[in-house]
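Form 7-S
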Amino acid sequence: MTDDLPDLIFKLNNSVSFSDTALRIFRIQAENNPVYRQFISGLRRKPEEITNINDIPFIPAEFFKSQTVALENLSFDTVFESSRTTGDSPGRHFVHDLKLYEKSFYNSFRYFYGDPSEYFISALLPSYTERQNSSLVYMLKGLIKMSRHSSSGFYNDNPKDLLKYLGLAEVTGKKRLLLGVSFALLDFANNYSSDLSGTIVMETGGMKGRRKEITREELHEILQQKLNVQSVHSEYGMTELLSQAYSKGNGIFHSPPWMKILIRDPSDPLTVTGDQGTSGGINIIDLANIYSCSFIATGDFGKLHEDNSFSVSGRFDNSDIRGCNLMSEPA
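Output:
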């Protein structure tokens, strides 16, 4: 039923193959995911009558806070949890196959940035590395291992060493990536203003409750000035997803070929607008979510652009979404 899908989804090369694969996964999940099956039934929709991905029902991300959104009769390698906010339950993603997640974040990184083995990869994720079930930390640990650079790692408590190894990587001609949550990057920039030109500086959200609230644009401007970089990159992900989108500047995100963004009508959450340039709620098709649900309605508000890139302007609610803005918390 699903045996060929983990390899197939990373070989998609056009919109037809994406749509065909998405519809196949939809029918599997509509039949074998009890929570999704009940959701579709409640909408009085018949899966066999759905032939266009725009008509697929998207389950609200909030369901992951109270339900086990997964195919029935599966074992789980792990359960990822989003960070908690006061008075709120975390999102929980029951992951059947961690190797599939590893394939997804490796192939996504490679698609946008090249092989991680070519990089010195450093991370600033204070407090998040102490959590055992963060999908972001798991991804960074995996990329650091793939980097094959002896000094790649987490530098939460030793920023001076981080500067030293960034400098050594520059001298040896190694590509350099510094990824961090917003408040940690801001502290680093303010305390250790440095010339990191040539280094990819990437934020992944995470300001809520940590510092005085500022916009993404304000954060990027500070980081550009303090660290002497032309642009600040961003990563967009959710605990409920196994794939990531990336921005190389200006808050414009691009998705890998197995992930697609659709915009829903803000006044009718069950209707996809289908129009580029129109603002509305962000729906995500993540084909890597083979064993849970690939069709998720996020709490994000944004816009789809002509080249299928997208931007995020805010949120409808308190969904735990990485990188959508500085109010969000990493997963």
